[in-house]
Amino acid sequence: MKSYFNAKSLLRKILIERFKPVIKAEVPVLSSSELLKGRMALITGGSSGIGFSIAKSFLTAGGGVIITGRNKEKLDKALKELGNEDRVFGFVMDNSTVGLFEESLKEILVTISTKDFKKIDILVNNAGVNSFGMPKATELDYDKVMDTNLKGTYFLSQTFASYMVRNGIKGNILNIASASCLRPADSPYILSKWGIRSLTLGMAKSLGKYGITVNGIAPGPTATPMMQISSNSDIALSRLPLGRFILPEEIANMAVVLVSNMGRSIMGDMVMMTGGAGNLTFDDVPYNFEINQ
Questions:
Q1: Catalytic residue among 163, 189, 210, 287
Q2: Would residue 18 count as lying in a domain?
Q3: Residue 189 known to be catalytic
Q4: Does the residue 262 lie in any domain?
């Protein structure tokens, strides 16, 4: 009797997988506008995934972008895809090397001045890595994730905010968190995203009086290389109420709104673009990722 039910369950699973609808990546994006005309954004981890999509959307909205990444080859490829040479810059930077942020910012400012950009008034903290969770996480995993995701975000934001205040620049800091910031923390990644959520509140409170608006976006499972999803993949995801992966273009649309004057009165908020993960469903997600080197 037991083997009969096992076979029946297996057959049902096979049939569901065989005949479930295939969902492809189709989502409207913000059309050309001037929402960010004259603005310049520094986007960490901008060579792929969510960061790359945000860079594209900022360009479409009339702004300029500086994307950073650790891998020069990937960065150069991303720059070529973005085009718009007068408004696009790339800079090799490791978010975990916080001691170099001050010098990096000076070098970036010199570079963009060659195209007549005098300031940067948007920072998007997007760079991040993942790792194993309990019980597989090592101390090395923990340090790498926390140094990149949280420590790097904290000190880069501090460096950038100081630059803005010194120069009387009003603008935005946008932190990319995760639906994981709603889940019990059993991995360095989740801990780091809880920290980003709290840091967003703290920075919004302390920097608002200087005209610096701080917010965050918490994406759910997103169709990016980190999730091993390509633009041509089936993006169905039955465990989400949304029924599919979130698309990086959707996150990018919201990013444009939040850093534009349309979002000026939104302060300290974490916009949950989770597809229902974490706030509607409470299933724990096993963290079995190797660190993205």
A1: 189
A2: no
A3: yes
A4: yes
